[in-house]
What does this fold into?
Amino acid sequence: MTKIFGEGPNQVKALDDVSFSVEKGEFVIVVGSSGSGKSTLLNMIGLLDRPTKGKVFIDGIDTTKLNDGKISAFRNKKLGFIFQFSNLLNDLTVLENVLLPRQIGGTNGSAKKDALELLQAVGLEDQINKRTNKISGGQAQRAAIARGLVNRPSIVLADEPTGNLDSVTSMKIVQLMKTMAKKLNQTFIVVTHDRKDFSDVDRIITIIDGRAFEGEQPTELEMVA
Amino acid sequence: MEYRLRLAKRMLFNKKGSLIGAVLAVTIGILVIHVNFVIFQGLFDAIVRDISNYRNGDILITDEADYIDKSDLALANWFERIPYVQGATPRLSSTAEINMTKNGKLIEETRIPVVGVDPDRDVRTSTVHETVAEGTYVINRNSVVLGSNVARDLGDAQVGDNLKLLITDRWGEDQVRNFRVAGIVQSPGGQGLDYSVVMHIDSLRDMMSREGESSSFMVKLNDPTKAYEVKEFFLRAFPNDDFLAETIEESAEEQLAGFRSGIAMINMIGYFGMMSSAFAIVTIQMMLVNGKTREIGVMRSIGAKRKDILIIFLFQGMIIGAIGAGVGTAAGLGYTFYAKETKMSFNNSLPLEVSYDWAKITQTALTSFTLAIIASLYPSYRATKLLPVEAMRTV
It folds into this structure.
C-alpha cells in the first residue's frame, strides 16, 4: 500500500508501496527512525486511516471495502490498540476504561469478569476504581494494555508503547505484552523507534523513508530495489 | 448505567464551568419567560379581575337595541337562584355636567361618566364599595360618590360638599339636581370608578326619565369558570328578549385586545431569549467537543461508531436541558411565589393577579428541554465528523 499526504507540490509519500503479511500469533516489531512512516503504517493496519493506494487484508477480509460503521465494528472486534500516551479516558475509572471496548461492542456478558482478570494479570487489581489521572504513567500504560486486550482481538497494535516510560517500566511493559501475546495467542504489531526494548521477537520490519524491509538492517541491494 | 450516558455525564460534570454556563443559559431563558408571565399576564389578569369586579362582572347582560326594561327584582331573583351566582345588580350609565362652588369659586366639569347603582345589590356583586377611600358608599338617593380623579378636578371635593349635577334626559331636557358627596372612591391601579360619579340608580333613572330601566346587569359568580354555562342558561331562559349576554372575556375584549397582542409580543421576546440560550448551548457544547477531541479519537479507535459519539453528545444536551429546565422552573416558581406572597403590584399601584399556570410552566420547561437537545445537534454532528486519526493527533 501507498499513503500520500497533501496535494500537488506539497505531496508527501509517507508509505511507498509497502507490502508484507503477518501470521496469527506472531510478535512483530516495526522499527525505524522518527518520521519514517511507522505510525502511518500502524494507522493503516488499524483502519484509523485509509491508504491512498493498495489494500489491507485482515483475517482474509479486504478492509478497504468496509464502510465506516463496519470499520468501527471491525476495529472493536478484531483490533486492539495500545498508544504511546496510554490514551485512557480521564473521565472514567481504570476498570471502566478497560470495560469500554466491550460496552461499545455490546458484549457485556462476562465483561466485568474478563476485565478484572486482565487487570489482575497486569497488576492493577488494587487500582480499578481510581480515575486514570490518579495513577502513574506505567500503571496507565498497563491499563491501556488491558483495554487493548479485553475484546480478545486478533491483532494488537501498539504505537510506541514504551516511548513515554522510564527504562525499568518499559521493560516490565514489554514483558507484559509478550506474556499476554503468548497466553492469548494474539498477533502483536508493535511500532517502536528503540529496538533494544524488544529482544527476542518473531519478526522485525524496518521502515525507511516510507518503504518496508524485512529484518533489522536492510542490505544496500534491498534499499536500491 | 448505559456507558454513553455515563460518559456524557462524566464529561459534562468534569467541565463544571461549561456545565454551569450551559445550565445558566437554559435557566435564564426559562426565568425570563416566568418573569414576563408573572408581570404581563399578572397585569392582564389584574385588569380582567378589576373590570370584572368593578364594571362587567363575570357575565354582563345588556339589551341588543336599547335599555333593559325587565324589572331589577325579576332579573336579580332569576340569577340569584342559580347556585353559581354570587350576586346580580343593575347598572345605569350616563354622562353629566357638574357644578360645584369651592372656596367661593365655581368649578364646572363636563362629560363626567355617571354610574347608577343599586347600593344593596351592588355590594354583593361588585367591589366598588371596597374602594371607598373617604366617607361611605352610596347611602341614599340624595348622595353621590365621587371618583378620586373627579374629586380632584373639582378642586379637591370633600365628603360633605354639595354639588349640582346636570343630566340630559331621554327627551333631550336638562335635569338638574343637588347632591351631597357621601364618599370618594379610589381603586388600586385606577381601574375602578375613579373617573366617574356613582349615584343611586333610582335617582339617575329619575333624571334620565328611564323608570325601571337599566343599561346593563352585572352578574358575579362564585365560580367564574361556570360563566359560559350560566350565560347560555340565561339566554335559553329568555329567548324572546333581545338580551346580549357576554362573559368577561367577551365584554372586555375591546379593552383587552391591544393588551393581548402586547402580551403575545412580550412572550415572543421571551422565546427569542430562549433561542439565545440555545445559541449559548451550541457555543458551550462546541467548546466541549473541541476539548474532547482526543477522547473522541480514542473512542473511535476502539470501535465507537459515529452514532455512539452522536448519542454521547446528545445525552449531554439532554442533561443540560433537564438540569436547566429543572433549575429554571424552580427559579421561575420561586419568583412567582415571591410575587404572589408579596402581592406584587404594577407601578406600585395595581396588584398583579399572580397565578400558577401549570400548563404554561410545563410547556416552558419542555420547550427549553427540547431546545437544548436541538442546540446540541450541531456540536454532536461535528463530533461525529472527527476522523479518529486526526483526533488522535491532538495528543
Q: What stands out?
A: Chain B has a mean pLDDT of 92.
